[in-house]
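Quick start: load a record and inspect it. Here is Peptidase S1 domain-containing protein:
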Amino acid sequence: CGKASLNPWIVGGADASPGSWPWQAYLSIAGSDGSYMCGGALINKQWILTAAHCICSIRSQVVLGARDLSSQGLEVVKRGVAEWRMHPFYDCILGQRLDNDIALIKMSEPVTYTTYIQPVCLAQKNSTFHTGVKAWVAGSLMWFWFLTTGGTTPTILQEVSLPVVGDNQCQCNYTSFADVFDCPVCLGSFQGDSGGPLVVKKVTCQLSLIGISFLKCSPDIGWQMGI
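Running the structure step on this input writes:
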């Protein structure tokens, strides 16, 4: 697991090279409020880890192996959704919350591992990630930021490297939330897909999943990404 090549010099974000994020999944959601997409992470041949708020609508399709969503080649695999499991303490009716916003999706069929489709490693329980540790996140559908800045939505997978932010600063950044959660991993301000994977490099050079993205907007903090 976690075998891929990432550019260590990325700071402001750049196009990802083919096969650099082989666990990246796209979730096509067809809900009552229209169609949209979230990110996810492949953790084995049939299961995807994502954010719970991404599956509050009707589950539709999983896309794996894609780097450019506008030009999908033979390396791309699509699967339906056979089952989903949301955190028992997450409530879609109450709206988006930062705590317990996690879910698992079981695909209709297992996938075959290829150069472009590989699982990510999972961080061990009770792992600690200190301030300044370099982490990576990726996504193609960062439309919220592009809409607010007047840009165009990218279809090619983007990747960015940012340092982990310490607990004290993280708590300060999220004072708008009355119920600050117990075990966050925060990054500096950036844009990415909700449900997308956040990874760090282990001493074995494998990449390990330490969190999933959460996108939140409010008048006082603007667009923020919590993990």
